[in-house]
TrEMBL record, chain A:
Residues 202-368 form the VWFA domain. This is VWA domain-containing protein. SMART domains: VWA (SM00327). It comes from Pseudonocardia abyssalis. Residues 81-119 are annotated as: Disordered. It comes from the Bacteria.
TrEMBL record, chain B:
This is MoxR family ATPase. Residues 40-207 form the AAA+ ATPase domain. Signal peptide: none annotated. It comes from the Bacteria. InterPro entries: AAA+_ATPase, ATPase_dyneun-rel_AAA, CbbQ/NirQ/NorQ/GpvN. It comes from Pseudonocardia abyssalis.
């Protein structure tokens, strides 16, 4: 925004300016929403501050998270400046931190690869096999690049459950509608009974990815994995990150392009590679999402090393709640694939009684195994 | 809309007053939202914690407008035939047999038979079709977050066109579009395409004064002291980090339960006896029971 004038002249201009500020504050303000805002004001009293406030809030917001941002922008825009110059409207948000880019291989890696492109193609067939079993934390940049491509090739099959919806079928109860239509073609003679039966519907899958410091080497690959799974069935897969707080990243991961999706998810995660308080974060998940419906009868997968700094008792309670809500509760611990691993970390010990499965997930092969477990859940 | 009954729809304040007369207390935002929903002919999308009065709003609106309330409860796997219309197959079959019986020896004309089968009298109107055909009406689409994506996509058309097309009959269009209220408990994110066509209303728990007022309006004759105590205690419970914080519905339930057991004020004994009306988890009840006296002192 370059405009530094007070929005008094043309009210429409001022109002549209307000929507621009909202957009830069992160609200999804589309043209039709702006149009709705203006026609709402048309029906109301545009000189009333309260009515202007509500006209905007009702038409331009779409999520409880939008409300504080809306309130702040409204306050900034419609409160006359006290004393000196008008508050400037500039996008003061910091550019998104490039944390995720730092985790992914540097772009110089690509130029490195170019020289060896032909040999790489040559060795790929056997290379895939080796890479599948490599620990994700120990990959070189070019192997990471290769792994990304392999991850993008995954075609996860998601679990299903019986639905109440009836579909034409060979078995089940008679379907009067189809029977009647068939009879009609035979001049009212019922020659065959048509039947219908319950169909299969996708079962919800919830992915909870720990992005705390101790999981950092795996976070990038696991988020890419989550992206592949979310993209496969955007309506039925939910993804969250666990750190010092809970962040829902489903919306970001729905983007088609993996790199853009991950960059967006990276911006959404405020606590990248910080600490964990697994118990508290799990409680936030069960309270806000799990109990309400996201985890109900779903397959819930927790990706974490179970490193819990706080009391593990809370984590145990939350896992037992989650266990009661979910259809299957699976824990994926990258360290579980290593030799001599024993589930002794405090977090894992507390969670263990409530798990249906404890898997490794430190390599592509083990992630494929996980997909198999999820599909058959 | 011009053809809506004049009166409550003249201004948000008039509407709030009309809602108040039905016992529903609307604040500025809610009154403006419902007013705009009527004026702009847009569905009202209500989201908020369970028990903040989303469903009650639709009921109150129907009462204010003198309209029929038609309710569609969404659930997993709901589809068009449960929401829109269905054909009455048994009666169609019966009709077919009757035709055969009266046709004598001559062969039936298939086309004529088919046309007579898809007569509007064999059409079973489900909530949405019923709402389009009833004037005036309030259509409550309850807990849309329980339905699946396909159903949302299907609603888009109905909500913007106020018309449905039945292949065998043609288009059925509402003469006066129904006032549509959608509710969601946020168990799942509803698609933005649907939200964009609606007015978005986020309902919070009311403040203390308003909640006391709600108690008085819902339970006429409740002692002043009891209402204030119950509202205050519920407020404290909401801050007590429970699995399921009580909503307004629970506040009313609790006050009613206390009156039924003959308590005219809230103390540790009466609270303990009626705690089931307000807390719905054993863990919550256990925790609260232990610290009832501190809770009631606040």
């Amino acid at each position: 925004m370059t405009s530094t004038e007070t929005p008094v002249g043309d009210p429409i201009e001022g109002l549209v300016g307000f929507t621009v500020v909202l957009r830069s504050a992160g609200l999804a303000v589309t043209t039709d929403r702006v149009a709705a805002f203006l026609s709402a004001l048309d029906a109301l009293d545009v000189t009333s501050r309260t009515q202007t406030y509500w006209a905007g809030r009702l038409t331009l917001c779409s999520d409880p998270d939008d409300l504080p941002r809306y309130d702040r922008a409204f306050e900034d825009w419609f409160t006359p400046p006290r004393g000196g110059g008008r508050t400037r409207i500039v996008d003061e948000r910091k550019p998104p931190p490039p944390k995720l880019a730092a985790l992914t291989p540097s772009t110089q890696g690509e130029s490195d690869d170019e020289g060896t492109e032909s040999t790489q193609v040559f060795t790929r067939a056997s290379g895939n096999e080796v890479l599948r079993n490599r620990d994700l934390a120990e990959l070189t940049p070019s192997e990471r690049e290769h792994l990304r491509r392999l991850l993008a090739l995954l075609r996860p099959e998601l679990p299903t459950r019986r639905s109440r919806r009836l579909r034409p079928s060979r078995h089940g109860a008679t379907d009067p509608g189809r029977t009647l239509r068939a009879a009609l073609r035979d001049h009212g003679e019922m020659r065959h009974l048509r039947r219908r039966d319950q169909s299969r519907r996708p079962r919800r899958v919830v992915l909870l990815v720990d992005v705390s410091g101790s999981m950092e080497p795996y976070a990038d690959a696991l988020l890419r994995f989550a992206h592949v799974v979310v993209r496969r069935s955007p309506g039925t897969v939910e993804a969250f990150t666990l750190g010092t707080r809970l962040t829902r990243i489903t919306r970001e991961l729905r983007m088609r392009d993996a790199d853009r999706a991950l960059a967006a998810a990276g911006r959404a995660i405020p606590d990248w590679s910080g600490g964990t308080r697994l118990g508290e974060v799990m409680r936030a998940f069960v309270d806000r999402w799990g109990q309400r419906g996201a985890a109900r009868r779903a397959v819930v997968v927790v990706f974490s090393d179970g490193w819990e700094r706080g009391e593990t008792e809370l984590l145990g309670v939350q896992m037992s709640r989650l266990h009661r809500l979910a259809h299957k509760l699976v824990w994926v611990n990258p360290h579980a694939g290593k030799d001599g691993y024993a589930p002794v970390q405090g977090g894992i010990v507390a969670a263990l009684p409530y798990l249906d499965d404890l898997l490794a997930g430190h390599s592509l092969a083990t992630l494929e195994e996980l997909l198999e477990v999820v599909r058959n859940a | 809309m011009n053809d809506r009954p004049a009166g409550p729809a003249d201004s948000p304040a008039a509407l709030a007053a009309a809602l108040r007369s039905t016992g529903y207390l609307a604040d500025d935002g809610l009154a403006t939202a419902t007013f705009l929903a009527m004026r702009m002919n847009r569905p009202l999308f209500c989201e908020g914690e369970p028990g903040t009065g989303k469903t009650a709003l639709a009921q109150a609106l129907a009462q204010v407008l003198g309209a029929k309330l038609i309710r569609l409860q969404c659930h997993d796997g709901i589809d068009a035939s449960q929401a829109l219309y269905d054909w009455d197959f048994p009666r169609q079959l019966l009709h077919l047999r009757a035709l055969e019986a009266t046709a004598g020896s001559g062969a039936l004309d298939t086309e004529a038979v088919e046309a007579s089968l898809y007569d509007p009298r064999f059409l079973l109107a489900r909530p949405i079709l019923e709402a389009l055909q009833t004037t005036p009406s309030v259509l409550l689409i309850d807990e849309i977050d329980r339905a699946d994506d396909e159903f949302e996509a299907f609603l888009l058309e109905v909500l913007t066109e106020h018309a449905v097309t039945i292949p065998e009959i043609g288009e059925i269009r509402a003469t006066v579009p129904p006032l549509v209220v959608l509710t969601s408990n946020r168990t799942r994110e509803v698609h933005d395409a649907l939200k964009r066509r609606c007015l978005y209303l986020w309902l919070d728990h009311p403040d203390l004064a308003r909640e006391i007022e709600i108690l008085h309006s819902r339970l006429p004759g409740i002692p002043e002291r009891l209402a204030a105590q119950v509202a205050g205690a519920v407020r404290a419970l909401r801050q007590a980090d429970l699995l399921k914080p009580p909503g307004v519905a629970e506040t009313i339930d609790w006050a009613r339960a206390l009156q039924l057991v003959g308590a005219n004020h809230l103390d540790v004994d009466s609270a303990a006896a009626t705690l089931g009306a307000v807390l719905k988890y054993r863990e919550d009840a256990d925790r609260v029971r232990k610290q009832l006296d501190t809770l009631l002192a606040s």
